[in-house]
Specification:
Blueprint lengths: L5 H18 L6 H29 L6 H5 L3 H10 L5 H15 L7 H27 L3
Helix pairs in contact: 1-2, 1-6, 2-4, 2-6, 4-5, 5-6
């Protein structure tokens, strides 16, 4: 089974574009803040889209779709490793991304955004790899 991963591809492309524009902006400018906000929102959207598509793939390994729908974010990624969709190291990085995203509820400020920016190069690469695997389908 292969999935339509076009939305995830678009999320990653948008995130990459926002990162490029951010890097081109002076750090003390309003443009920097606009693009930084775009990166943070792009990160959150890509993260949520990734887990939704991952859950769809995991339904192949479960007897009940409802059981997959009830998996927490981290459990979904643990099962992805169990079924060789991701490596253990990749799953650990996805946990870091999720933990960072959860911090949004506690810290909407500049510190959170700057912490998120540090994760972006690795996150973009991990999201691309996940999208490629999901697009190929469960072999």
């Amino acid at each position: 089974m292969s999935l339509n991963t076009e939305h995830l591809q678009r999320c990653v492309q948008t995130l990459e574009s926002a990162l490029v524009l951010l890097e081109q902006s002076p750090s003390d400018s309003i443009e920097y803040e606009v693009f930084r906000n775009a990166v943070v929102k792009g990160f959150e959207l890509t993260l949520e889209t990734s887990v939704k598509l991952l859950r769809k793939t995991l339904k192949l390994y479960f007897s009940s779709s409802k059981a997959v729908d009830q998996l927490t974010f981290k459990d979904a990624f643990r099962h992805a490793a169990k079924h060789d969709l991701l490596t253990g190291e990749e799953v650990e990085r996805w946990f870091i991304y999720r933990d960072n995203s959860n911090n949004t509820a506690h810290d909407y400020g500049e510190r959170f955004a700057e912490t998120t920016l540090v994760l972006m190069p690795g996150f973009v690469e991990d999201a691309k790899r996940l999208e490629e695997r999901l697009a190929r389908g469960a072999d």
